[in-house]
Structure formats: structure tokens, C-alpha cells
């Protein structure tokens, strides 16, 4: 099938199957249909449940999908972060067990890294995993976790050794979010909605078969996840009219005959297009086996800055009445500052880019060789 035919059939399927508004069950039905039609996991390995197609098909579908409001956000963590980590760092049994249900929307995933005392400095986390026969017992707290209220599984980073420096005593696991020792509590943000959660783990048993990577090598697995997270977040940029601050949406509600307005819309188009092309390049390199490294942080930083720019531009062009009359726009504007925090703050991203992309001198650090138990970090007294 050539790409024109691929686009045509994809558009036909989306027109016939994209629901106007659905809850979690409806989103799962949609995702299952999307997978069965061949449009979920387009470039993922076929042996693990993906479609095994090329980048051209994935780009073609993405171009068509921008025209539709698909009920897929609750799957974004699994598709963009957890699943790719399992493909890269999991074993064959884990891939065979989890990838296909993830792609088909049968199971929802979340990512469990941040803690009350370990946000930007993730390696300072204190959630402990202790050996217990053939498994592990986990106790601790995570916070700012997206979709935890829906999740069946979570990718959790834990501390398994306090006698070594903080980056060297971490281990990654897959945790059953339905375990009776897991408590999920919603956190309401400035939009008035509860997108995030805090999660408490009380004597949660995890079998050793659900460990991802080697014991005490969790930081390297986490770096893989964070790379995919930043690429996934930055790839969310688009000019779809479904976003009330997008170029298409703003063109419908402002005076495009005003040359000053046109100048600002052109700036929005240039920023959006540049980031799209940058993400496309990083995606192609990743699928070709070329590790983008810290440039993923640059993409995430650019998206955060673009999101705030879009929100400010929308308010300036539409006027303050938009925040009173248009609930979607009010939500988008209040949500925008969060992009400068989620997935790593802008300050952290700039530090990573300066250190690892531009080769500037790194910030001085005194904790690289100190055992974690001797550090005074986060909530550890």
C-alpha cells in the first residue's frame, strides 16, 4: 500500500471510529480498534505485538491523526515512556507479557519517579525495595504521577542500596497498581482538575521477575525512560485545531487582516514547525539505533517554551474575556506553566543541554562519591 492510500484508509477509519467523548471504557474500546486496524504501535517490533512498519507510515498516520481528537491521553505514559523502556531494557518474557496489551489499550500504565523530597533531583529518592525471598517488598511514596488513578501497572524506581552513592543504589521494577498495599490519592492543580496523584506503597510485594535491568543499575534504566519521556512530551507539539491555542484555532478567532497579528501567528508557526522537524529528526535517529541523548532535553525545553508562548499569545490576541467565556481556552492557558515543570524543569533541561550538548563546565557537585545514607537530601534528616 502506498502512502497516499495509507493516509486515505487511516482517515476513513478515524472518521468512522473516533468518538466525540468517551470515558475510560470507551477509550479502551477505541484503542483496541485502533490496534486491530493496524494503527497502534506502527513502528514497534512485530515480534512483541507491534505493526513492524516504517517511519513513513508512522508520519503519514500522525499527519492524519492531527485532524481528530482521539481519546488516547490515558495511554500516553505507557505508549511514550513505559513501553519503549521495556522494549529497550526489558527481557523477552517481559516484552511478551506486557507490550501487546499496552498497545491494544487493555492495560494502562503510569511512571513512578518523583517523590516529595526528590523531584528535580530524582536520584535522591527514598522509596525502598528490600529483598524478600524470590521477590522484593516496597515501601514509600511517589507524587505528581499522571494517570495513576487509571493505571494497572507502573514503572517504579526504588532504592535498593543505601551504602553506595545515590545514583548507584537504585533498581527499576514494574509494580502492580492494583496491589492492596498501593493507595492512590488525587492532587488538584491550578486548572481545577486532578491530573496528578500521590501514591503510597505499604509492604507491596514485587516478584523479582518484574525487575527491569540489573539490581542497583536502575539509574541507567531511568535515563532510558527519561529520554523517551522527553521525546514523547516534545513530540506532542502540533498545530491541530483541537488545541485552542494552536495556530489553526487562533486563526479562526482573531483578525488575520491585522499585520501585527499576522506577524505573531507567523512566529507561532515557525516555532511549532521547527520543533516538529527537530522531533522528527530525533525520532528517525532513535529508530535507526542512534541515541539522541541530551538533545531530547532540548526538545522538551523547546516545547515548554512554545506552550507558554502559545498561551500568552492566545490571551493577548483573544483578550481576557476568552478566559471567562471559553472553558477550553482557560484550561489550556492555566495548564501551560505546568509544561515548564513536568518531565524536568526548564532550569534542569538547560543545565543538561549546557553540560552534555554544549560541553560547558558542569555545576560543581559534592555528592557523587558519598554513600546515600550519609547525605542530607530531600526529607532525609
TrEMBL record:
Residues covered by the Acyl-CoA dehydrogenase/oxidase N-terminal domain: 5-106
Example of a GO MF term: oxidoreductase activity, acting on the CH-CH group of donors
InterPro entries: Acyl-CoA_Oxase/DH_mid-dom (IPR006091), Acyl-CoA_Oxase/DH_mid-dom_sf (IPR046373), AcylCo_DH-like_C (IPR036250), AcylCo_DH/oxidase_C (IPR009075), AcylCoA_DH/ox_N (IPR013786), AcylCoA_DH/ox_N_sf (IPR037069), AcylCoA_DH/oxidase_NM_dom_sf (IPR009100), Mycobact_Acyl-CoA_DH (IPR052161)
One GO CC term, this protein: plasma membrane
Residue span, Acyl-CoA dehydrogenase/oxidase C-terminal domain: 216-358
Cofactor dependence: FAD
Domain Acyl-CoA oxidase/dehydrogenase middle residues, every copy: 110-204
Keyword annotations of the record: FAD, Flavoprotein, Oxidoreductase
Family per similarity comment: Belongs to the acyl-CoA dehydrogenase family.
Protein name listed in UniProt: Alkylation response protein AidB-like acyl-CoA dehydrogenase
Organism: Nonomuraea soli
